[in-house]
Amino acid sequence: MQSKKPYSNLLFTLLALFLTYSYQVCSQNSQLVTTEEFIYDTAPFPSCHASTMADTPEGLIAAWFGGTHENNPDVEIWTSRKINGKWTPPVAVANGIQHKNKRYPTWNPVLYQVPGGPLMLFYKVGIDVPRWWGMVTVSHDHGKTWSAPTRLPEDIYGPIKNKPVLLKNGTLICPSSTEDNGWRLQMELTTDFGKTWEVVKLKYRFNVIQASVLTHADGSLQVLCRTRESNLAESWSYDNGKTWTDLQLTSLPNPNSGTDAVTLKDGTHVLIYNHTKSGRSPLNVAVSKDGKTWKALHTLESNPGEYSYPAVIESNDGKTYFTYTWKRQKIKHVVMDLNKMDYSKLKTIENGVWPN
Question: Which of 14, 56, 74, 140 is 20 to 30 A away from residue 348, measured at CA?
């Protein structure tokens, strides 16, 4: 009778090779993380949410809303700048005070650095989301001081959660949405950084808000959006955001939570999101070359808790910066050096399943 030992040795060898490969991939992805920190240890507010970032000529700045809890009238917009490798203490830069007898909460700040110009801070004010309105303030000293805030024109809310994208034709496209009559997506276009606006509404098919904009080498645009349908939705534009294809659900899951995405200078698309259909953990990073096939890069958080409302940008140093809400208690900051990423070794996300 022939011995089964050679087959056992073969299985052992194959298993060892698989584990070695998996370890190398996981190790590679973990080593891409160069910084992992909280923006602050203590703050004059107990709760925070909805962070945003911009890279100014003097370095990184982050903003978020903080107060007693979301929707409380004391919620303000706070900022912190990273100077000489350290974050400055949080500073309140905007609030919802109307007069001495009335105050509203603030919501969802979005930072945008105008190339060669001021730093813009968009945010919302209102008693609740369906009734909020858009505000903007600017800084000419990289976030140290801010102008008196102004209200955006009626029906213009500014970028609702995720950063604007400047197109090659000079149009700044702000992904926006409304929630006063169902969840509806709209793009707000400006060619003069907010002096004049054009609103482009996407066809209403299902509940969708909070888009992020990706740019492709052929000039097309893609948005990825939060939904109530348990999956991310997407739409495409081939005329610089003037018209959009019908919204379609992707295979990527979404637990009715905010996401963000960015197209890097080398054309790689980076998506940070909760890869689950319920809850706000885990928090994952996926990458794609075409915006259609996504590969699993890294899991930032996997423990129980809320890790949500992320932001992602590519900095002037070529690295990729992330911030996100950490248990509603702090804002976490992570930096990854994706120049060292080996895209060919990453596993494809198939049928919405994050690979082990």
Answer: 14
Mode of pairing for the β-strands spanning 208-215 and 221-227: antiparallel
- Which alpha helices (DSSP H) does the chain contain, by range? 5-31
pLDDT, position 188? 98
Strands 47-56 and 330-336: unpaired
pLDDT at 30: 80
- Alpha-carbon distance of 34 to 105, in angstroms, equals 35
Residue corresponding to tokens 């208690």: 329
Tell the burial category of 339 from Cβ atoms under 10 Å away from its Cβ (0-12, 13-18, 19+).
exposed
Nearest to 186 by CA among 261, 125, 237, 250: 237
Sorted by where each starts, the structural domains of the chain and their CATH numbers stand as 32-348 (2.120.10.10)
Laid out side by side, the sheet with 198-201 consists of: 165-166, 172-178, 184-190, 198-201
Asked if 286 contacts 349 with a C-beta cutoff of 8 angstroms, the reply is yes
> What is the rounded average pLDDT of the residues 180-189?
96
